[in-house]
Design goal:
InterPro entries: DHH_sf, Oligoribo/pAp-PDE_c-di-AMP_PDE
Organism: Candidatus Magasanikbacteria bacterium RIFOXYD1_FULL_40_23
Order of helices and strands: HEHEEEEEEHHEEHHHHHEEHHEEHEEH
CATH topology of the largest domain: inorganic pyrophosphatase (n-terminal core)
Distance between the termini: 56 Å
Number of domains: 3
Low-confidence stretches: none
Structural class: alpha/beta
CATH class of the largest domain: Alpha Beta
CATH superfamily of the largest domain: inorganic pyrophosphatase (n-terminal core)
Radius of gyration: 24 Å
CATH architecture of the largest domain: Alpha-Beta Complex
Largest sheet: 6 strands, mixed
Number of strands: 15
Shape: globular
Protein name: DDH domain-containing protein
Strand order of the largest sheet: 10-11-12-13-15-14
Mean pLDDT: 89
Amino acid sequence: MALSEIEQLRQILEKSQHILIVTSASQSTDSICGGVAWKKFLEKHHKQADIIVDNFVAPKNLNFLKGIEEIQPQISHLQKFILKVDISNVKIDTLSYDIKDNWLSIYLTPKQGTLTKNELRTAQSGLKYDLIITLNSQDLESLGSVFFNNTDLFYKVPIINFDNHPGNEHFGQINFVDLTATSVSENIYKTLMQISSHDIDADIATFLLTGMISQTQSFKTANVSPATLANASQLITMGADREKIVKNLYRTKSMASLRIWGTALTHMQSDSKLGLVWTTITKEDFARAGATEEELKGLSDELVNNSPEAKIILLLNENISGENKVHGFLCADKHHDAKTLLQSYQPEGNKRTATFSVSGKTIKEVELEVIEKIKKILLPSA
């Protein structure tokens, strides 16, 4: 009799010792919180776990969650290359090295006699991880540079794929793609309840509820079901601090955040035929508000709340670090595909949200160009 997915997951977790948890490069609060919840759960089962999010910078509004600081922006020390020397006949006196023109030279000086290539051997250690858990990624490319810089790892190590998007490519050896879940955090909650519900402590419950609240805009989105509310209630019973979550996600905004959000809402434009709402933020806007790009997190939700008829939300902002670049974020409803709409820009993300960058053009040029490309996709005969 074939094993169920949960039984398969239990078996592979029991066998695994060092697990990599990696989320979509879009860095949603939902996937971040789901990832840390998984890490804490695995550590309760005496497993070593690392969580990696491409180029991660911790959002200020999540600093109240203990464990966010453990997320790393890239994989390090994935594998060791070993140089072996047979010293049974020739003893080594000194060892030194030098780096020049991107070449590493290792110098071995014998006490007596000579060393030849016959005494040298090379080897490499096994991969650091024996299992990968991916979150909120419809395909491996959505993981960003974590995947592109370590492709061998993802093709050699088993993958457990957690998602709640219909466009998921089921690239894992085991796929938990739950289209009824409002968020990947709710998906993870359902799974952990089946594996070992008594190991979901107050910290894990708080992470999972934070992900659910963030992804559903505090349970206001259309896909919230009675089952979702029951799951949230159970997490509160398990110790999740709803008041603290809501306070930090929605009630703690700096003056700089409020100013830059106000500017974005003032600049907001729309196209009713496309169902598109967009806004732009320049370097000067950031300077006047005393804000950074960090303050833009959550702005897309605010734009949705201020334009409920919108099907597509586009946010463009100039890079403030000096390089001439425009960053873009696009959020689409369930009837559209964010990555398809941005296909000309090699976007990262998933069907619902995607990010991209354009270099060498002004923000006005990018604005006109992106809207025109979206228009051609949605209204090809126009």
